[in-house]
Amino acid sequence: MDRFTYEAELMDMAASLNEKDRDKFIQIFQQHAKNPVAMFGWNSWLGCFGVDRFILGDILAGVLKLITFGGLGIWVLIDCFLIGNRTRTKNMKLADQLYEDIRQGTV
Q1: What's the whole-model pTM score?
Q2: Taking the alpha carbons of 45, 49, 51, 52 in that order, is the dihedral positive or negative?
Q3: What is the Cα 56 distance to its own chain's centre?
Q4: Is the Cβ–Cβ distance between 95 and 24 less than 8 Å?
Q5: How many other β-carbons are positioned within 10 Å of the β-carbon of residue 95?
Q6: Rounded (10°) angle between helices 74-104 and 36-46
Q7: In this prediction, what percent of the chain has a pLDDT beyond 70?
Q8: If we measure between CA atoms, which residue out of 83, 92, 89 comes closest to residue 12?
Q9: What is the SS3 string spanning the chain?
Q10: Phi, psi torsion values for 57, nearest 5 degrees
C-alpha cells in the first residue's frame, strides 16, 4: 500500500465519524500505530536480528531473521524495500478494527 492511499483511507475513516468519535479514533490510532520510517531505521540498524519484524508483531519472520542473521544480510536488504509497506498494512488492519469498534460503541 502506497503512502498516499494509506493516508487517504485513514482520512476517510476519520471523516466519517462524528467529532467525539473522530478524536477518540485519532488518539488511539496514534498511540498504537507504527511509523514506517522508524521501522526502516530499525531494519537498517538491527534488521539482522529481526527486531523490525518483532516490533511489527511478525514473530515467525522475526525468529527466522534472527536465526539466519537476516538471511546473511539478504533479507535485511529486501526488507529495506518492503518494511514500509508491511508497516502501513499492519496499521490499516489496526485502523479497520478500531473503526469498527468505535462504530459499534465497544471502545
Answers
A1: 0.90
A2: positive
A3: 6
A4: no
A5: 20
A6: 150
A7: 100
A8: 92
A9: CCHHHHHHHHHHHHHCCCHHHHHHHHHHHHHHCCCHHHHHHHHHHHHHHCHHHHHHCCHHHHHHHHHCHHHHCHHHHHHHHHHHHHHHHHHHHHHHHHHHHHHHCCC
A10: 95, 5
Q: Which residue has the cell 467529532?
A: 19
Q: Are 58 and 85 in contact (CB under 8 A)?
A: no
Neighbour-count burial for 49-79, b at 16+ CB within 10 Å, e otherwise: bbbbbbbbebeebbeebeeeebeeeebbeeb
How far, CA to CA in Å, does 91 sit from each of 15, 36, 74? 18, 9, 25
> Span 64-83, mean pLDDT?
94
Residue identified by cell 538491527 is 46
For residue 72, pLDDT beyond 90: yes
